[in-house]
Amino acid sequence: MIKIPRVIIFFIILVLCSNTCFAEQNMTVAKNHYLSSERLEKQENFVLYPIKFYRNYISKADGYRCPMYPSCSQYCMEAFKKHGLFLGWIMCSDRLMRCGRDEIKLSPHVLIQGEKHSFDPVNHNDFWWHQ
Amino acid sequence: MHIRTPCLAYLFLIFFNLFFLFTPFCDSVAGSDPEPDIKSSIIISPDKQFDFAEAYFSNKDYLMAVGEYERFIYFFPEDERVETAMYRIGMSYYLGRHFKKAVDSFNAVIDRYVDTDLSIKSYFMISETHVNRNTFGPAIINLNNLITITHDEDVRDEAYYRLGWIYVETASWEKARLYFSKISAKNKTKYRLERLTSELNREKSIPKKDPDLAGFLSIIPGAGYLYCERYQDALIAFLLNGGLILAAYESFDDNNNALGGVIAFVEFGFYAGNIYGAVASANKYNRKQTVQFIEKLKSNTKINLSADVKNKGVCLAFEFIF
User: Fold this and answer.
1) Residue B128 domain-assigned?
2) What is the pLDDT of residue A130?
């Protein structure tokens, strides 16, 4: 019998779980969380490729299921663009841990295409140190 | 010659007929009636024009109201209601949420009329507009300017009261107390200062979470979230970080250094995210509690200070709390 290492099993579970978080949505409502300058966007482009790939190919097949607005993938892109690679990565990880849990009870709600989502943009999470 | 003469005769006949055919219509088409029918024309009086603008204003069609008030000012510049119309333009922009234009319009009233009721109200409305735009600095400056120029104690007291509330909005409790305390003794009852002060003193009892402590507790993954009363987030942070740390340890232990490195990199993000999230959660918790306190304070103690033109009157209201 083939023995699968526990590490591999853990990674498979992690990837499957993260799929539910990385659901894409169209940006239609929130205009008050802005994206940063074009220069920064170019700088961080290589970081955004995996997220863009996910949004364009995997999420479309997987379905849009993120209960937050903006979706986790959108949030991560904005965090990378606004705060760079290091803090973007930390904020992205933080969001993935919070997605769909206590934040749903605590954040204000918005209606996106008839569905209720928790409104949690980047500026709701960096207001205490970044204007 | 034989051919040309009949042609000219025909042409003459045609023109002659055409002339007589169209003569009766010419006057009406050209509108050149020598005696115009006065009864069918409309003469707009200042009253009619002002009432028309007021009708738009009361129907909440604010942009149309602005147009009609401007027409009133243009055609009847000597009318005594020009100041009211100018103020109404500002109010229309304010109620229509065109805040920048509202400030410009109220400033126009202040520039043209000095120390009148409406110019004073314009000062108040400018500060109100700035507060609505969350630009508290200009609102404070504007009210301080009013305090400097006015000699009326009631106006000064209202300015102090408004300044106090602006500082309440920004959670600057001491400054709020300072401005409320400047209100003269005769107006203390009007502004319900006794109750306001006692309610304001409760700000010390607003429940708060210490962001530093939340960050420190997050050394144990999830403990910071737990401190901020985010129990599900705490559990996920603990399990995820614990699992990744274990996975990294096992990978290195099995000499899978590359895999261990990748997992450790991912884990670093989640561990740091756990600390960042706990600190952010504490700040969000504090902000939410403060906002709730301010809202409660407003609903319990803030009196209505509408600066509208027709704000004088008696109102009887009942409130049932159930």
Assistant:
1) no
2) 78
Element (H, E) at A111: strand A109-112
Q: How many residues are listed for chain B in this entry?
A: 322
Question: ipTM of this predicted complex?
Answer: 0.72
pLDDT (0 to 100) of residue B1: 46
Question: With an 8 Å Cβ cutoff, are A92 and B269 in contact?
Answer: yes
In this prediction, residues B231-260 reach a mean pLDDT of 95
For residue A1, being part of any structural domain is answered with no
Contacts A128 to B, Cβ<8 Å: 211, 279-280, 283
Asked whether the bond before A70 is cis by omega within 30 degrees of 0, the reply is yes
What is the number of structural domains in chain A? 1
Residue in B with minimal Cα distance to A14: B240
Please tell me what DSSP assigns to residue A3. P
Q: At what angle do helices B46-58 and B62-75 cross, to 10 degrees?
A: 160
Q: How many domains does chain B have?
A: 2
Q: What is the pLDDT of residue B207?
A: 93
What confidence tens digit (pLDDT) does each residue in B11-57 have? Answer: 777 776 666 555 545 444 444 455 555 567 778 899 999 999 999 99
Instruction: Give the chain B residue nearest A128 (alpha carbons).
Output: B283
Which chain A positions have a beta carbon within 8 Å of B236's beta carbon? 97, 101
pTM across the whole model = 0.72
Residue B219 lies inside a defined structural domain of this protein:
yes
Domain that holds residue B52: 45-122
Task: Choose among B231, B236, B250: nearest Cβ to A6.
Answer: B250
Residue-by-residue DSSP string for B161-209: HHHHHHHHHTT-HHHHHHHHHTS-GGGTTTTTHHHHHHHHGGGGGS---
A130, part of any domain:
no
- Structural element, H or E, at residue A6: helix A6-21
The reply to whether A49 touches chain B by the CB within 8 Å rule is no
Taking residues B133-161, what's their average pLDDT? Answer: 93
> Which residues in chain B have their CB less than 8 angstroms from residue A91's CB?
273, 276
pLDDT band at residue B283 under the 50/70/90 scheme: very high
Give the gap in angstroms from C-alpha B269 to the nearest C-alpha of chain A. 5
B303: pLDDT strictly greater than 90: no
Pick B280's closest partner by Cβ from A6, A101, A125. Answer: A125
